[in-house]
Design brief:
Length: 453
């Protein structure tokens, strides 16, 4: 079934609507809804109108996203449009060049209408920074939209844009999508190249997309994916074959290691029952016994490597969360790092072996429901204290460790009426097959974008 993105794209391709009209519609929705929700840090109205007019003047189509309004998370550089990374240190920063994914979106014909909210440098459970926020959940403005692509999720959920760019380290497109009732894609790392990444072989973080459904996510990936020799991860082979056999679907509530609230488990079981009725689904998952400890070891040094210079020169200006991560990164010894990488490799191979027997693994897209913005971090689940500030993300960061593609689908509501999503996880590189299966599951089970009030 076609989603809002593909429907708009088709209308633009047939010239039933002009790019300028599509952009004006998006800007009007932002003006109407964003003051109460704070999904955007910067709205690029003038440049968006100019880009739309240039597209309308062309005799041909610029590409598969011709005229589509798109929002970019404020962690990615946009030429001529303010890019703050959510930090006061970059309050007035305007890049000269586009991030690689932004450049590909524009080359495909997309029009950038603005930059969406993020915590400072993308690190924070609530989508707030010292420049603006919090980004409020459209289902209950007192609650969080999720970190760190909360602005992107809210922009799509409320119809401000049909497609939003995001990034995902430990769950940063997946958690907000689940909280806001929309779909998301964390692709296999390298599928969307990042030639500017300092650590070229690290695959914990990747760009991704948020949209209304699997069909729209597939269109976004088709328009932007492809190798870049400057990114060593992007030079790998990405198989496109879609299995002819009936889908083999496994499910897990927690990978055997993650804390997951009962308020999430109940609607998750209901969603699994629908998938089981349509295709068959069985409980199974790879052995993830050391996954949480491995992520705890690997993440802090990566953050320190990226932001230690800011800490030395402007430490007092950084948010508490960023300072905490940088300081923790100094404690990791090389031997511990290497042991964690060895465990990560073993985990990756166990996932590969698992996907020899299964086409997809279903898991909750978030361990908790949205919580009040002022509460900050998640420190306990169902009354049990969590060891660290990120353990509520274990159900998503387990997958980040091994680089599997993940599609998040909204599947229903909690007992209190809040959106709930699932992760549909596939074998590394099999993004196309996973998106095709996600579309089949949407259709068979009636999973749809959940409209906010």
């Amino acid at each position: 079934m076609s989603g809002a993105l593909r429907t708009l794209r088709d209308a633009l391709a047939r010239r039933e609507i002009s790019a300028r009209a599509a952009v004006e519609r998006s800007l009007a929705a932002i003006a109407r809804r964003d003051p109460a929700l704070c999904a955007f840090l910067t709205v690029a109205a003038d440049s968006a109108r100019a880009a739309a007019d240039a597209l309308d003047a062309r005799p041909d189509l610029a590409g598969p996203l011709h005229g589509v309004p798109v929002a970019i998370k404020d962690l990615a550089d946009t030429a001529g449009i303010r890019t703050t990374y959510g930090s006061t240190l970059y309050r007035d920063h305007v890049p000269d060049a586009d991030d690689a994914v932004v450049a590909r979106l524009k080359r495909a014909g997309a029009v950038i209408v603005g930059k969406t909210m993020t915590p400072e440098f993308g690190f924070g459970a609530v989508c707030v920074n010292d420049l603006a926020g919090p980004t409020r959940n459209p289902f209950d403005p007192a609650l969080t939209s999720g970190g760190s692509s909360g602005g992107a999720a809210v922009a799509v959920a409320t119809g401000m844009v049909p497609l939003a760019h995001g990034t995902d380290f430990g769950g940063s497109v997946r958690t907000p999508a689940s909280f806001c009732g929309v779909a998301a894609l964390r692709p296999t790392p390298g599928r969307l190249p990042n030639p500017g990444r300092a650590l070229g072989w690290d695959m914990l973080s990747t760009a991704g997309f948020i949209a209304g459904g699997a069909d729209d996510l597939a269109l976004a990936l088709e328009a932007t994916a492809g190798p870049d020799p400057r990114d060593p991860l992007s030079t790998r082979d990405f198989p496109a074959e879609i299995p002819a056999h009936a889908p083999r679907v496994a499910w897990t509530e927690d990978f055997g290691v993650a804390a997951v609230a009962e308020a999430v488990r109940a609607p998750f079981r209901a969603a699994v029952a629908k998938i089981d009725a349509a295709f068959g689904a069985r409980p199974a998952h790879p052995d993830c016994a050391m996954a949480i400890e491995t992520f705890h070891t690997l993440r802090p040094p990566l953050i320190r490597q990226a932001y230690a210079g800011h800490y030395r020169t402007h430490g007092d200006a950084l948010t508490r969360t960023v300072r905490w991560w940088i300081e923790r990164g100094a404690e990791t010894k090389a031997a511990d790092w290497l042991a964690a990488e060895a465990e990560r490799t073993a985990l990756y191979r166990r996932f590969l072996a698992f996907f020899e027997s299964w086409d997809a693994l279903v898991a909750p897209a978030a361990a908790v429901l949205p919580w009040p913005n002022e509460a900050g971090d998640v420190v306990e689940i169902d009354g049990v204290a969590l060891p660290t500030l990120i353990d509520y993300l274990a159900v998503t960061f387990v997958v980040s460790l091994v680089g599997c593609p993940v599609v998040v689908l909204p599947v229903g509501r909690s007992a209190g009426g809040l959106p709930v999503g699932i992760q549909l996880i596939g074998a590394p590189g099999k993004d196309t097959a996973l998106l095709a299966l996600a579309a089949r599951i949407e259709e068979a089970c009636g999973f749809r974008r959940i409209e906010p009030p």
